[in-house]
Each structure stands twice: as C-alpha cells, then as structure tokens.
Specification:
The radius of gyration is 27 Å and the shape is globular. With 397 residues, the protein is an alpha/beta fold. It has three domains: 14-113, Rossmann fold; 157-276, Cobalt-precorrin-4 Transmethylase, domain 1; 279-393, Methyltransferase, Cobalt-precorrin-4 Transmethylase, Domain 2. Helices cover 29% and strands 20% of the residues. It binds S-adenosyl-L-homocysteine. S-adenosyl-L-homocysteine (SAH) binds at residues 171-172, 196, 246-249, 252-254, 277-279, 282, 329-330, 356-361, 381-384.
Length: 397
C-alpha cells in the first residue's frame, strides 16, 4: 500500500487526541512542537500528559470520547486501547472528511504516522508499506547519516548562523557531543579546536573548513588564550561562522568565560552549547556515580593544577573535613600533596579513590587505591580522580 506524504503545518490548528496512554504520550510532544492546539479526551492519562494539561499546554477532557469531540479538529489521533472506540472515532472523522490516524490498526487507518527524525532543520519521514520496524530502521540510518555528514544537506549560505558558538565537545568519545553541538559543527566555516576535543569530530569536517589548532598558536607577546580570542573574533568579524570546540564543557575549567567575554566585547553574536564534562562523565564511564542516594549528597569538582598552599584558591582543609565526593581535574602532578592536605583536613586515609584516564575513549584505563596511596599510584594526563565512598562502590562495567 502506498501513501502520499505531506507535511501538516499545524500551527494554531486544533487536533483531537483520543486516549491518554503511551502512544498519545509519544505523539503529543511532536504535535505541540508543530504548534497544534491539542484536545485530549481520555478518562486516564500518563503522568507526562497530565503534566502538559496541568501546565496548560494541552486541554484535557477527563472522560470517555463522545460523538462531536472532533468537530473543531483538523486532524485526529485515535489511540485508545479499545479497538471499537478507535473505530468509532475514525468513522466519525471520515464522515467529516477529517484525516485520522488509528494507532491500533494500520490497515484500517486513513492516515499513518511516519517514522520521523529531525536534524539541523531537515526533517525526514519514512514509511515502509505499513512495516513500522523497517521504517524506523531506515529512519535511523538516515538520521545517523545526517549527523555524521555522510549524507550531505548543503544549506543556502544566507541561512548559516553567524558569529561564534562555544561548543562543549564532551569528554572524549566523539559520540558524546550534544546534537546541537554537532549541528553547529557541521555548519562551521572555522573551527578553533583544542587538544582534548575528539579528533574524529574534526575528521568529518569538509575540506573547505579552516581548522585552527589552539595548541599550536604562536605565543609571541600574548598568552595563547589571547591568541585564541583574537582568532575567533577576527574570523567572526570577517563574516565567518566560527565554532570554538572544547573538551568536556567549556565552562568547567575551560576558560569559556574569557572567550564569552571576548565575543561580547567585540559585539560578535555568541551561542553557548554546554558539553558533557569529564568531571561527571569520567567517573560515570568507570561505573562511579558522583552521587548515590543514601550514600553521598554532594560532590565538589576542583582543579589540582595549583598545589595546596597560599597560591591555591581551593579550601582543601574544608574539602577534607566534608564527606562528599571530590572530583579532581588537572591533578596528576600534584596528587600527592592534595591527598596529604585532604587527610590533614580530616578525610580518612583509607577513603577509596579511582583514577580514570582517557575516560570514554578506547584507551580508558581505571586504577584504584586508597587516598593515602594516591601519591604513589600510577597516573597520567588526562585523568579524572574521584575520591569518596562512591569510588569504593564502583561496579565493574
Ligand atoms: N572542560 C573540561 C575540563 C578541562 S581541564 C571538562 O569539562 O571536561 C582538563 C582536565 O580535564 C584534564 O587534566 C583531566 O583532568 C580532565 N579530562 C578531560 N578529558 C578527560 C578524559 N577523557 N579522561 C580523563 N580526564 C579528562
């Protein structure tokens, strides 16, 4: 059976949804995203749907469907678990010449919901002669192709974003960038990258994209950070769309604040795209949750690049006295002094520690020790060091 694909522009138009179960729960968010005014008719609804109703995002008539409910509807979704009700809803819609999707019976349905994916302003809908699994498989393949760039979706230059996007690339595995980050990266004309950003992300950029390796900028009279800011701003002022790609989250020990200020001062439009920080993702990748109900109710992320002493802004004594999880970044070199300061502050010498090196990459290595032995336990850059009871409860992954 073949279908005629169309895109419904539902902005401001009423849509009737009958039934408040998981199918309605899956469809309603997309109807809302398309701007539809949703009337839900159902005696019961999922928590998410009742939250929508409570927030006024949909109208919910808490009762069984009755004839006439679809009078104002441009489009109807019959998604109850009672086939006879769905059939009645569909029959009435048909009598009124209103398109209706019957969720329970594709063959009896006048319209089908297609397998759908959206990436970077491109929307793809797939049907496969009524075989939803096959349609979903093709949809997944196309969506993956769009994300990796294997399927090109060239855009009109005038619709490109302008200015600078500060994009967190995630902890190391290229798959852990956000969809928004990837979407912007695919449109970049200039990418200013640093060493901890996944190389695979750069490999997928087009030949015409200028890649500036921040680690290789000449020092000269300026610090590299000033050079980075200058390159970003200069290129953006030339009218190029610049992505500043950082490992983890750019605002966690990533000097993102300085880059943001540089853009704002230069009057360059700037978008901030958060990334998955190694401070949380690193422990997670080693099976260590930074919090755990009934075990620990706080975690602190500290940099160890300055050893404990007058130069450090971290109150190591207070951290030692607490009982929360401590996550250390940039602490490989100073780990012995930090462990000593924490123990001096009151942390038990036997407190469990995990050292997660190259977290989330194929080279990930995890070592364990007690806090007292941190200084003599092997550790290499880049490592996240997680200290606390949660480190001792780590599950093997
Ligand atoms: N903005 C980054 C952190 C930058 S500071 C973020 O949010 O993740 C650099 C430090 O991050 C490194 O010294 C190391 O401690 C940690 N780090 C970053 N990526 C890492 C990874 N894949 N594995 C382990 N540690 C990592």
């Amino acid at each position: 059976m073949s279908v005629y694909e169309i895109g419904l522009r539902l902005q401001g138009k009423s849509v009737l949804v009958v039934g408040g179960g998981s199918i309605a729960g899956r469809r309603v968010p997309r109807l809302l995203a398309a701007g539809a005014r949703v009337l839900l008719v159902a005696p019961e609804a999922t928590t998410t749907l009742s939250d929508y109703a409570a927030a006024g995002e949909i109208q919910w008539e808490r009762r069984e469907w009755r004839s006439g409910d679809g009078d104002d509807a441009w489009f109807v979704l019959a998604a109850t678990d009672a086939p006879e009700v769905n059939a009645a809803v569909a029959a009435e819609a048909e009598a009124r010449r209103t398109w209706c999707v019957r969720a329970d019976d594709a063959a009896a349905s006048d319209a089908w919901t297609l397998a759908h994916a959206e990436f970077d302003g491109v929307s793809v809908a797939v049907s496969a002669s009524g075989d939803p699994r096959r349609a979903a498989a093709v949809r997944d393949a196309v969506a993956a192709g769009l994300r990796t760039g294997e399927i090109e979706a060239p855009r009109n230059r005038t619709t490109r974003p302008a200015g600078v996007a500060l994009v967190g690339a995630g902890p190391g595995d290229a798959d852990l960038i956000t969809l928004r980050g990837l979407e912007l990266l695919r449109q970049a004309e200039v990418v200013v990258s640093d060493r901890l950003a996944p190389q695979e992300l750069l490999d997928m950029l087009g030949e015409d994209v200028e890649i500036v390796d921040a680690a290789k900028l000449p020092y000269g009279r300026h610090t590299t950070q000033e050079q980075i800011n200058a390159v970003m701003v200069e290129r953006a002022l030339e009218g190029k769309f610049v992505v500043r790609l950082k490992g983890g989250d750019g605002f966690v020990f990533g000097r993102g604040a300085e880059e943001l200020d540089a853009c704002l001062e230069a009057g360059v439009p700037v978008e901030v795209v958060p990334g998955l920080s190694s401070s949380i993702a690193g422990p997670a990748a080693a099976g260590v949750p930074v919090t755990e109900r009934g075990v620990v109710h706080d975690f602190t992320v500290a940099t160890g690049h300055v050893p404990p002493g007058p130069q450090s802004k971290v109150n190591w004594t207070a951290l030692g006295a607490g009982n929360g999880t401590i996550v250390l970044l940039m602490a490989v070199k100073n780990r012995a002094a930090i462990a000593a300061a924490l123990i001096e502050g009151g942390r038990a010498p036997e407190t469990p520690v995990r050292i997660v090196e190259n977290a989330t990459t194929k080279n990930q290595t995890v070592r364990e020790c007690a806090l007292a032995d941190l200084g003599v336990t092997e550790a290499h850059h880049p490592s996240v060091i997680v200290i606390g009871d949660v480190a001792g409860r780590a599950r093997e992954l």
